[in-house]
Amino acid sequence: MNRLGTETSPYLQLHKDNPIDWYPWGPDAFDAAKAQNKPILLSIGYTACHWCHVMAQESFADPAIGAQLNENFICIKVDREERPDVDALYQSAANLMGHSGGWPLSMFLTAQGTPFVAGTYFPKEERAGQAPPFHTMLSNVMRSWREQQAEIETTAVNLMNGLNTLWRRDMRGPIDAGTLDSAALRIGQRFDIFFGGLGGAMKFPSVTLTDVLWRAYLRNGMGQFMQLTSAALDNMLLGGLQDHIGGGFSRYCVDERWLVPHWEKTLCDNAQIVDLLTSVWQFNRNKLCETRVAETVDFLLREMRNGAGFAASIDSDSEGEEGRYYTWTEAEIDAALMGTFVAKFKAVYNVSREGNMGNGRNILQRLGSPAPFPQSEADEALLARQRSILLRARQDRVAPQRDDKVLADWNGLTITALANAGAAFNRADWTTAAIEAFDFVVKALGDGDRLYHSWIAGNRSKLGFADDYAHMARAALALYEAVGEKRYLDYAKRWTRTLNEHYWDGEAGGYCTNAGEVDALIVRTRPLFDQPTPAANSMMIQVIARLMMLSGENEHLERLNAIIGGFAGEAQRVFVSMGSYFAGLEFAMSALHLVVVGPLNHAKTHELTAAILGRALPNKLLSVVSPDETWPETHAMHGKGMQNGQPTAYICQRGQCSAPIVNPVALSQMLQLPPQRPQPGSKPQ
Questions:
Q1: 568-627 per-position pLDDT tens digit
Q2: Which CATH architecture has domain 3-168?
Q3: Which residues pair with 455 in a beta bridge?
Q4: CB-based contacts of 404: which residues, under 8 Å, 6+ apart?
Q5: Which fold has domain 592-670?
Q6: Of all residues in the chain, what percent carry a pLDDT higher than 90?
Q7: In terms of C-beta density within 10 A (0-12 exposed, 13-18 middle, 19 or more buried), how is residue 200 classed?
Q8: 179-317+403-589, what's its fold?
C-alpha cells in the first residue's frame, strides 16, 4: 500500500495498491521532488471516468511501469472532484501548451509545480492514431529532463507568464443593452440546428448555454431560440443520454445524434438538467419535461443519497465493461417482459437482435423509433410498467461503483434544483429532500461561517472553494423562496460575507478559487469559466443581486458592479464558456421581486403564489411574507401590505412596485413571457 491508503477519496483509494509510490497533492510531494531532483508526474482523474480506469488497469497496475515511475519521478494522484482548483489550473496549462486537456490528465511538472509536458490518456502499447505508449513517454520525458534542462526552464517561464496572463489579466469591458442578445445569437450559431447541442462529434448537455438560448426566447420571443432549445432538449430527453429505465442522464454522448452515451452519471449534470426542464415546463407544460424531471429526481433520491446529502457520481463501467449495466440483448428483454406485449417495447426503444452497439447489446432510446413519442396514454402507461419490470431486473446485475463523496458545491446545485422543482410541481417531498440535504451539508461540511468542500464516511477534507460558498448561498436563497424561513437568508448572508472577507481579489477584482490563507498554487485563479458547474463569480452575481433586492440597501452594489464589469471583456471573447455569467447579468439587469403578503396558510395566499410559480420566470425573486412583515424604509415595499384584508401581490423592479394585485388570474397575465409582439397592422394600445 502506498501513501494513498489513508486518503478518503474513493478515486484515490482505487490506486492505493498500485506498485507506484503515489503521493496525494501536498507539500510532501514537492519537497521530495526538490530533495531528489526529480520531475513530477501529476495524474488527475475521477471515479466515474472510463479512460482513467483503462489507464489504471493497463499502466498503473503494471509492475514494470511502476518501477520506471518510482525510479525516475515523484508521482502525485489527484481526484479532480476533490481538488477542482488543481484540476482547473493544470487543465488550463494543458490548453496553453496546445493540448485539449481532459481526463485522465497527465502532466509532467518541475519541482516548483510548473508543467513542461502535457498529455491525457497514454496507452500501454503502440496503437495507431493514439499517443505514444506510456513507457515510451516516460523515457522521452526523462531524456529531456537530463539533457534539456535549459529548454525546460524556458518552457516553464513562458508557461507561468501565460498562466498569469490567463488568470490574472485585466478582464474588464463594457456592458450595454445588446450584450445579452449578442451572446445568445453567437451561442446559437454554434448549436446544431438538426440534433441540438453544441455542434461536434460529441454532445454534452451544455446546460448553461442552452439556458442562454431559453432565456433569450423568454426575453424577446424570437422563435429561433425556442427551436434551438427544443432541438437540444428533445434529443437529450429521448436519446441515449437519458437512462430510460432508471432515470437520470449520462455525462455526454460520443456521437452527434445523442444515441451512444458515455454512461458515467454525475450529480451536477443531473441537477442542472432538472432546473432547466422545470423552467421549460413552467412555460409550456411540456409533458416530456415533466416526466423527465420526475424520473431524474426519483433517480437522485433512490440512487444518489448518502445520508441526507447526495453522492458525487456513478461509474460508467461494471464487470470490466463500459455500459454493461445499462444495455440489453433482445433475449434479455424478451425474458424479462414475457407476457407484457414485449413487441411494443422493442419497437418504441429500438431493440433488435443485432443490437445498436455492434455486439448484440442495445442502448435503449426513442429517437428514430417506428413508434415515436408520445404514444397513446394507454401505451405510455404500459411502457412505464415495462420499464419498472426492467429496473427490478437490472438491480440484480453488478452495479457500477458510486463515488460517495458529498461535495458542497454539487449538493448546492441539487438543493436549488429540488427546491425550485418542488415549488413548481407542488411536490412537498422534493422540497423536504432539499431541506434535509441543506441541513446535512451545514452539519457535515459547515464550521461556523466556513464550509469544507468534501465529506465521506464521517471525514471532511479541504477548506471550501469559492464554488462551494456560491452554490450553497444560492441553495439557501432557493429554500428561502420555497419555504420562507429566514434562517436560509441568514446562511446566504453569512457565506457571502465569508467570500468577501477571504476570497475577494483586492487587486484584480472578483472572487478567487481559494481562500487567501490556504497553501497557494502556482497561480491564484479566479473562477469565471463554467466547468461541470456554473462558475462561482457568475453565480455570485445572482446571489448578491438577490440579497440587494431583499434588503433594499446598496451595500453590495460596488462588489456586484465589480464582478459584472470586471469580467465583461471576456463576454465578447470566450462567450461559449460563460453561459452562467450571462444568466447572472440578465438577472442583475432585469430581475423582478415578486412579493405576496398574506397569512401563510390562507387559500388566497397560495393562489397568488401558484400564479407566480405557474410562469417561467428565471429572473424572479419570490417573497411570501406574513402581514406583519416590516420592510426597511429604503425598500420599495416599505409601507405596503394587504389590501382590504385580502392577500395581495406586488411586482417590484428597480426600486419601484406595482399597484396591489389581489386577483391571481390578473397576476398570471401580467407575468406572461415572452412579451407578445404586435401583429402586422396593429396599432399601439
A1: 998 888 999 999 999 999 999 999 999 999 999 999 999 999 999 999 999 999 999 999
A2: 3-Layer(aba) Sandwich (3.40)
A3: 406, 460
A4: 10, 306, 311, 312, 456, 457
A5: Glutaredoxin (3.40.30)
A6: 88
A7: exposed
A8: Glycosyltransferase (1.50.10)
